[in-house]
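User: Quick sanity check before I run a bigger batch. Here is a single chain. Can you write out its predicted 3D structure?
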Amino acid sequence: MAVRQRDLIIIATCLMMLIIVPVITMTLVFAFRYRETNKEATYNPDWDHSTTLELGIWAAPLLIIIALGAVTWVSTHQLDPYRPLTHIDERRPVPPGTQPLTVEVVALDWKWLFLYPDLGIATVNELAAPVDQPIRFKITASAVMNSFFIPALAGQVYAMPGMETKLHAVINHAGVYDGFSANYSGAGFSHMRFKFHGMSNEDFARWVAKTKADGTQLSRDKYVNLAKPSESEPVQHFASVAPGLYDAILNRCVEGGTCRADVMALDATRGKFDPSAYVCTASNTTGLDAALNPPAAAGDAVADALGNRRLVR
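Assistant: Done. Predicted structure follows.
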């Protein structure tokens, strides 16, 4: 995906250069040719129009804009980070039945937490994945908005507290790549860096086994301490993760309280507010005039007629 995004930028730049370069060149040429001291240049002060020149001036930019718009439109949909991958690279489609590796990403102050729900492990400031294996990132943040960015893998995607963004990507070559936050988030922002390891299937299996053997347990209490602001946090491995930790982080209820998903579900069951039950309208005020002007002894009738309704002027 990163290569295709690079190619899109190059194509767009080249298309724009088709206008920019000739315009700048002609500006310099005309300024030099028709300078005041050049007596050999044709002087025609009454010239004001050329149909051929007008067609060229407007047709060339129009054609470039059409081409640029078409390329951008198609590429934008193909490179949508929420869209599951259909190809490993330009020539190889994703084999049928291939399951992506799910990685849950949490931007903390000022470090990165990576959870592997299918493997039951987690890491801090270190990410690994097999080569040519589709990866499905689920991204959120603990407190401050950040931006998850591995230039060799794909474009940046924002991480926001209480929200989940997604990114589908794949790494095609083994190696160690830089990852970092591309959005300023406070004093420790410059230290929000990590290494992404692209590995063979065998090396990745060994990395997972080592993480399970050497790591500790990531409980909710340990996460609360981990989420406290800190800078230049060393790499940490966790052999197990508290059940439902990522969902609790996403729904802002790690330390207790009602999760946001439960609040939204409760709101959905309450139905829509119907103001007609509380506000007087033309359809529900029959006989109200008589109730508003009763005999002196019939004051109680006013209250009975109004009930719980409120008059709107």
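The chain has eight helices and twelve strands.

User: Great, the batch can go ahead then.
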